[in-house]
Design goal:
- Helix content is 39%, strand content 19%.
- It is of the alpha/beta class.
- The chain has an 8-stranded mixed sheet, sandwiched between helices.
- The longest helix has 25 residues.
- The protein starts with a helix and ends with a strand.
- About 2% of the residues have low confidence.
Length: 378
């Protein structure tokens, strides 16, 4: 076993395991034998020292089978209704499979709002920790029935990465229908080579991922790379492997060199800053001058009004906003101490002029360093 891989797998006491549609579904609905096999592996690998949290696709596929639909509906209300019909089928399948290995399960359905609201985020975390303390396996999915298209997580790869932060996980495992990340698309190039380890996700790695999603799922390899990047920002590695391979989980945790291991960032974000970077939807943007950008990125300073050039959006005090450089590229996100209207009045001014401009001054900084996250540069 590679020593670095061994190090990460040995430390992986809490594992977020994402099971994609390409793994869980067959032509006529859920792939029941495969689910039973994977659950059997989870049962054998679960112990007092290792917990699994499942992020599971499959509700829409199960609903299509239940309702007699040949394919996934195109309309949002129809897809949401099919997901509602399929959730009970999916959970019943898991209930029976986990009962065979002596484990109980619980379903958690989340929307983007649940993880964006800090109080609801903490409530979800407390529920998750309680279930784990009771040795119940949480099975998490997006609440497709009520989620609007604008507030979706995007896909379950992204949701799984966010759950890693919510749960304080040690490892993210994404099971799909390919052996991992190749240096080029194996569906188009016979000489494609599997990458066993990726130290950083750069432009070359993103190009290798391609852009073709699977037939049943919303994500593809690109979404898995995005998930690995988010997990890496939380300080944990990601392993992408083929869920159709018999014994895949036992191969992973016995240290066999299967799949692609993505290493985490050296500097991990705190849980709160991770929440700010990836869970919160910015309500506007601030264009800052080059000097302010340099002070924020390299000097670890707070954003003062003097460095702000333009204000975009109608946000309120306490909202998240993007910070943009002179080329209009977002390089950070932060929680603002002033509304868009107020910042419009004080932009370009010194902090000691805030009270004169607004008639009051609650803060010297527009965004304090503690409420600011700088995006990693690729």
């Amino acid at each position: 076993m590679d020593s670095l891989r061994q190090q990460y797998l040995t430390k992986a006491k809490r594992v977020v395991l994402k099971l994609g549609s390409a793994v869980l579904t067959a032509a006529d609905g859920l792939n029941q034998p495969l689910i039973q096999r994977l659950v059997g592996e989870i049962g054998r690998l679960s112990s007092a020292d290792r917990e699994f949290i499942l992020v599971s696709s499959g509700a829409i596929a199960a609903g299509c089978r239940k309702l007699g639909f040949a394919s996934r509906p195109a309309g949002i209300p129809q897809a949401q209704a099919v997901a509602a019909a399929g959730q009970s089928v999916m959970m019943h399948t898991y209930e029976l499979a986990f009962a065979e290995v002596g484990l109980k399960v619980a379903q958690i359905l989340l929307t983007h709002d649940d993880l964006e609201s800090r109080p609801r985020f903490l409530n979800a975390r407390n529920t998750l920790f309680t279930l784990l303390g009771w040795q119940v396996v949480p099975i998490i999915n997006e609440n497709d029935t009520v989620a609007t298209d604008e507030l979706k997580f995007g896909d379950n790869d992204n949701l799984a990465a966010l759950i890693c932060n919510l749960a304080g996980a040690d490892l993210l495992v994404l099971l799909t229908d390919t052996d991992g990340l190749f240096d080029k698309d194996p569906r188009e190039h016979a000489d494609a080579r599997l990458l066993h380890q990726v130290e950083s996700i750069n432009a070359d790695i993103e190009r290798a991922a391609g852009h073709r999603p699977g037939a049943l799922g919303r994500g593809g390899m690109v979404s898995k790379l995005q998930a690995a990047k988010k997990a890496g920002a939380a300080g944990l590695p990601t392993l992408i492997a083929n869920g159709l391979t018999p014994g895949i989980l036992e191969k992973i945790f016995s240290g066999q060199e299967v799949g692609t291991l993505f290493l985490p960032q050296d500097q991990k974000l705190t849980s709160r800053k991770y929440w700010l970077a990836y869970n919160v939807t910015p309500k506007g943007a601030l264009l800052v001058d080059p000097g302010a950008r340099n002070a924020l990125v390299h000097g670890h300073k707070s954003l003062l009004p003097a460095g702000i050039l333009e204000v975009f959006g109608g946000f309120r005090k306490g909202d998240a906003v993007h910070l943009m450089d002179s080329e209009g590229k977002p390089f950070a996100v932060g929680l603002t101490n002033y509304s868009a209207r107020e910042i419009g009045q004080i932009k370009g001014r010194q902090s000691q002029e805030i009270a004169q401009s607004l008639g009051h001054k609650a803060y010297d900084e527009v965004i304090h360093r503690d409420n600011l996250v700088i995006f990693p540069e690729v």
